[in-house]
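REVIEWER CHECKLIST
Item 1: Sequence provided? yes
Item 2: Single chain? yes
Item 3: Sequence as submitted:
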Amino acid sequence: MHTNRISPARKILCWLAATLALALLAGCESVTLTNLTPASMPENPSQIYTFTLRITPRTNTVPAASILPHIILDGQSYEMKKSPVGEGLYEFEYQLGAGRDDVAYYFLVNYDVEGNNVATPSEAYTEVAHAQIVRRYVLALEVNRGPVGSRVSVLGRGFTPGDKVFFSGTPVNTVFESPTSLSFFVPPLEANKNYSVALNGTPGFSQVGTFHIDASNVSVFPISLNLRTRDRQTLTFTIQNPAPPGGTLLDVSTDVPESVIMPEVIVPQGQTSVTVTVEGGKAGTGSLFLKGFGAGEVTVPLTVTDK
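Item 4: Structure as written out by the authors:
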C-alpha cells in the first residue's frame, strides 16, 4: 500500500491554520454585546441622544484594557466612552440633524484574546438597529375619574392644535394649550361606566388610559323660560360639589338654536353654581338639554314669542 508522508513545512502550516481557526472561534465566543439603547427616544430640544452598550467578557482571557468599542452611525465610526453608571457599560452621545426621526446604527468592538503568551486581535459586532425619535408621547391622564363636565389634563409633550381626545371612539371637547399642555372636558356619556381614552392626531391614535365617569346631579332655576324676541333672562345652574381645577363645563344644547342666544356655561373652579343670561331669538318652542346628569338628561322647556 502506498502512502504520502506530510512534510514538516506542511505540518507547520496546518498547525498555524488550526490555531488561527481556534483563535477566531474563541474570539467570537469571548464577549457578549447587549444593546441597551431604547428603540424609541423622546425628542429633546438639544437633539442629543445617548446610545448605550454593555460588553460582558465570557472568559478571563480577554483583558479589559484591550476592549475598544465603537458605534457606527451614518457611515462614520465613533469611539464609545465608559459609562459612570456601571461596569462594562459604554455610551456615546450623538446630535441628530433637525427634522430627523430615525437613525440606523450598529456596534463594533475590538479586543484581544490571550493564550500561550500570545494576544490575538478579535472583533465582535451587533446587527443593525434603528432608534426612532418620538416627537409626541403621552404619559397618562391627570386623574382617572370624575363627573361630566370636569376638565382633565393629559400629561405628555408634542401636542398640536389638531389633536383630539376620544372616549371609546367618541370625540370630546379638547383644548390645546401648548405643545406640552392638553386637556379635555368629560363628555355627557352614561355615568358609572369606564371608557377607554385615546388621543388622535397626525401621528395617529395613542392610547392614554381609562376614565370612569361618576354620577352627578345639576339643578336649573328657573325650571322653564318664557321670552320675547331680544328680551333677556338669567338662568342659574347648580352642581353638587365645587368645580375642580379648570371648572366644570355644562354642555347645554337645544332643539331650537335660532330661538335662543346664550354663552358657554362653565361653573368656575371651586364654585357650585354659575348664572348666565339667555336672550330670545326667533319665535319658537323647544327645550334646553343638559346630558349626563341625574337620570341622564335635564330638560328646561323654552318658549320665545315675537314682541
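Item 5: Key structural point noted by reviewer: The two ends are 132 Å apart (CA to CA).
Item 6: Recommendation: ____
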